[in-house]
Design brief:
elongated, about 300 residues, three-stranded antiparallel β-sheet
Amino acid sequence: MLVRISPTVNIEADSLSHALQTEHLAPRPAIAAARLWPPVWQLAALSSLLLWLYWPTLSHLIGQWWHDPNFSHGFFVPLFSGFVIWQERSKLARVKLCPSWSGLLLLGLGLCILIVGQLGAEIFLARFSLLIVLAGLVVLFLGWDFFRAVFFPWAFLLLMIPIPAIVFNQITFPLQMLASKVASTVLPWLGVPVLREGNVIVLPAMALEVADACSGIRSLMSLATLALIYGYLVEQSVSLRVVLALASLPIAVVANSLRVVGTGLLVQYWDPDKAQGFFHEFQGWLMFVASLGMLYLMHRMLRIFWRQKGS
């Protein structure tokens, strides 16, 4: 008796064998990409080394955040950068990892800036070098594509570094003069006689000095930081985010000028003592909330303009 073997069995066997070989040889991008990440022990070693190198710089930086009200927003900056990276984790997982030796150049540059900053007692340079070192490590281990993907949270970290004193003074004095000029112009419209001498506003009851704390630099930096956070959370258009960040600067200046005007009105029509203490601080908080409201209204107006322009 002859037994006939169906050819379909051979075809199916060949197909199964080919499928297994294809599955065995096919690349697995997720696993291949995961292998490009440094081992955990290397990440831990690098983190420990960075902490050892920058511990004096970081401890001094955190102390300035705690004691200097002008830069107290620094606590929120690294937290928000970490939040952005966490929000974009699915997008970052799809970025092709191509480690580049050019990251060593950035790493070396950052370390050189750190040495110069420490030898020259230039705190700003020592702090800024940390960002350069972080950028170098990202490029070295993960590649330029990944660095471009995390550029926004990396650049946002710049806001946690206080402005150098020489630059800070160059900004605060013009703001003081601007606030005093606006107040000396507006107060006579409201029935308050004013004599301005530089940043000092002489009222009938007393003289008001627009000091460094009243220059508006604190609300300006805080509002600019919040404008970037607000734009990222509620706006998809990059152009609108940039416009909102830039609009926060004149809004902060206007709000601070109105604060000085309000202080003059308190002195003239209520009590000169109300220009100091609780009412003065409360007025600052009130104007900051008002500036947030102005920023929100500006956003609504910009969205309407953008929608009309798009149509």
